[in-house]
Here is the input.
Amino acid sequence: MSKLDAFDIQLLNLLQGDSLATAEALARSVPLSASAVTRRVRRLRSEGFIAADVAMLAPKLTARRLRALVRVQVHEHAEERGIAALRASLAAEDSVQMILDVAGADDLAVLVCVRDMADYNALAERLFQNDPAVRRYETSFIKRVHKQSALVMLKPGDVE
Here is the structure.
């Protein structure tokens, strides 16, 4: 795996904002030729610095969805195998957008997006109520999203 330089970091930051940007458009912001940009982006993809290109849906398609943040406590003596199985079942669920191991009173934070309350209740029963590793869970429903981003702004000192 090659080392990232300042040009690579600039390209990664720009591509996080628009993964479909052309080499010509990127070359207007990074002092490289379009062909050099193309080679670098190809290398960044092949070396795994870019994990995926995704489309973020417009709010007009998602605004009516029910989103919730579910905080989960597992049993103190739950086997790691049981917790791993819980994480795997959460990861396999299309309605689960994010799974985080967290510190504090809770062990996991799970972001879900479903069609409506009936779908949420079915999901909660299937994933949380019926799982022997789950001690308790608490749900906060999201009223409004003010910002949604996966951007991780990189600086030259952030990578080796």
About this structure: The mean pLDDT is 94. Residues 34-46 form the longest helix (13 residues). The chain is about 40% helix and 20% strand.
